[in-house]
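Protein in question reproduced for absentees:

***
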Amino acid sequence: MIQNIKAEILASRKIGHDIFLLKLNAPSITETAQPGQFVHIRCSETTDPLLRRPISIHDINSDGELTLIYHVKGKGTSWLSKREAGKKLDILGPIGRGFTLTENKRVALVAGGLGSIPLFFLAKKAAEKNNEVDFFIGAQSKGCLLRIDELKALNINLYIATDDGSEGFKGFITQLWEQYLKNGKVYDRAYSCGPKPQMAAFSRLAIKASLPAEVSLEENMACGIGACRGCVTTIQDSYGNKHYENVCTCGPVFDATTVCWGD
């Protein structure tokens, strides 16, 4: 059930170029939050900006601490980055359809850029359910990789790719994952989040490998609860029929085989 609460800021700090980590006290949200879901934050004390900002859930803990990571892009997130510990934020959550969790399986997580933010929570929960987790994380360069030490602390296998070769494999993260698939690595399920071209490539590889796969989409959102239809994406059923679905309520996680990538 979606909660509307005033959450106290526990910590806020910059962790990269225009990238901020935010910790909130939000036990009524963390007790039901699932990997892949998000919260909708009011980023103003007035009506400017009017719309809330959707931010993926990065992590939670048993003490009710909610961790978010976001990229400062405009007026709303700039305002958010200036909030200090002790202040309270108006948030809605948890919202949306999350990832399908398995138990005692082998799973692959393929993240590009900021796509690693929601997949961190998924990797943690998947490992807790005794899955063998291969986390493939890609970025433009070594300096753009997020929370690598924290990922290494999880009970997972970590594989890194950078566009410029400054860390790990040189190239796109889907190219690295494709190498493992071609070399016979078999998975029971795969998940991805990142730029659309990366997720489109991921989906093609998953389909080729007959691998159940899910992707987490990002779209501009207004209401965040499915009323305004401002965040629709094109979905195709098994008969080839296309229709629109809300990313906020029907997603943000979708079966990778159903998403129309426009290619």
The chain has six helices and 15 strands. The chain has two domains: 3-95, 106-255. Helices lie at 27-30, 75-81, 116-128, 148-152, 173-182, 196-208. The mean pLDDT is 95.
